[in-house]
Amino acid sequence: MSVASHPHTPVVVAGARPALWSLAMTAVVAGLGLAVIVVNTLVGYLTVGLSQAVPICLGLAGCFTVAVALRLLHRAWWLAVLSVVPALFVLVGSVQLAPEAVLQQRGVAQQVTITDVQTSGKRHEFALRGDSGPLDEPLVYRGSAPGYRVGQQLTVLTDPQGQVELADAEKVDVGGKRSMLVLGAVGWTLFALLAGWRGHVRRARGRQAMAPLSI
């Protein structure tokens, strides 16, 4: 007696997504990172002469958005947490590039001597004297270890239009800030590729976003 054969029924893994969908979402997250870099750098240029709070706040929001996007793509937090490293490069580079570029392009170099210092918390204001007399603008350092002392001679760059605050010429590094943006972009792109691949594998295995073993 023959036994009727039944057609094989494929097993559909819960939560699986087509590879094309995962690839598209990976491209979206990578593009989001690049968009954050471009937009925040542009805002930095548009707000030269104003408070840096605008690009700083916008940059923080953008970096947080990228981290959340990586979390959703990867379905785990550890890559999102590690993305803080390239985010720091992006934030510092996009905020400081514009004012340093302005000083490099139109700044006037002056040899000065530090004559006095006023400290308020972590804000240090160093009074300067040039060849033609005291400068109206101090050298401002925000931090706990400024590395400057009274009597020290150094070269500073001043903005003739008064939009960008005076800065130590040795600390103005436009090329370095651009390199930071490139490193940030490369880092975010690599994280997006890794998150997309691992997320695709997780979804193919039917893992849920809030699985107990997710970290």
UniProtKB/TrEMBL annotation:
Name recorded for this polypeptide: Uncharacterized protein
Record bears the keyword Transmembrane helix: yes
Keyword list, A-Z: Membrane, Transmembrane, Transmembrane helix
Chain ranges passing through the membrane: 20-46, 52-70, 77-98, 180-197
Domain of life according to the entry: Bacteria
